[in-house]
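Dear colleague,

Following up on yesterday's call, I've attached the two folding results inline so they're easy to grep. Please treat them as preliminary; we haven't cross-checked anything against experimental data yet. The first protein's sequence and structure tokens come first.
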Amino acid sequence: MVGMNPLFETKASESAKVDAFMAKVDHPLKDVLIELRKVILAVDPEIGEEIKWNHPTFFFAGPMAPSNPKEYRRYIVVSNLFRKEFVRLVFPSGAKINDTSGLLEGDFPDGRKTVVFTSVADVEAKSGALRAAIRTWLSLVER
């Protein structure tokens, strides 16, 4: 049975906590975050969500080889609502994704990549590349 092997760990999704966060969030682009959440969760049934770093965060919930929690190897993408004019997604280990679409931006020393969304239409326009980036990330998970 998956998850029973002591060499692998799974992580439970906390969708109810994300729902509660979303009910209270006060951001002019809340609708953008709602659409992003739908797109991200629809990519794969093993994507979970929680509130981490004070924002909705998406992670690989399936069985995964144990690792140092400070490496954040399970985390796919973190939303960021600090700016009012866009919603930023941060891929903590985005540098490992071979993104030829130009979606992922930044050359950060810690390996993260980012992408910004300014409207629901922007989400729709970039959703194919976003799904592809997430699928690539998932293909690299050490299971």
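Below is the second protein, in the same order (sequence, then structure):
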Amino acid sequence: MARRDLERLLAELTPFSGLRDADLTTVAACGQNVSFAAGTYLFREGEPADRFFLLRQGRLALEAAEPGRGALVIDTIGPGEVAGFSWLFPPYRWQFDGHALDRIAAVAFDGSCLRGKCDGDPRLGYELMKHFSSVMTDRMQSARIRLLDLYGQTAG
């Protein structure tokens, strides 16, 4: 995907909508196209969170390990959605596993690159923080609903 096409794509997506053209150019400069086979783990809980992903194709399950039960799916992410916000907060470690349910085509953004850009331009950092807050809120709501479903099934 050409850098200009990536900028246009970013402008249409919730975490980046409303950013200035120059900001979209800055964010796009930290991204690169990647792909993963179905069944691949893009990241594992506790590992360094050095990037985040914008899915273009496929689905990614966010999972939490549950002793004695295996993986608990917290959320499923699809095309046009962002996976990962742990790159924003020290100690920059993944909080969940990210498991490809299908073949995934994505843009991977270098978290260190983007943090450096935000350090140099606090206004951009503030804008991205506001936008990524909506991603975090959505994930927390999804986790809440999944937990209610889980406990509702075991209570009866």
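For the second protein, one point worth flagging: Helices lie at 3-11, 21-28, 111-120, 122-155.

Best wishes,
A.L.
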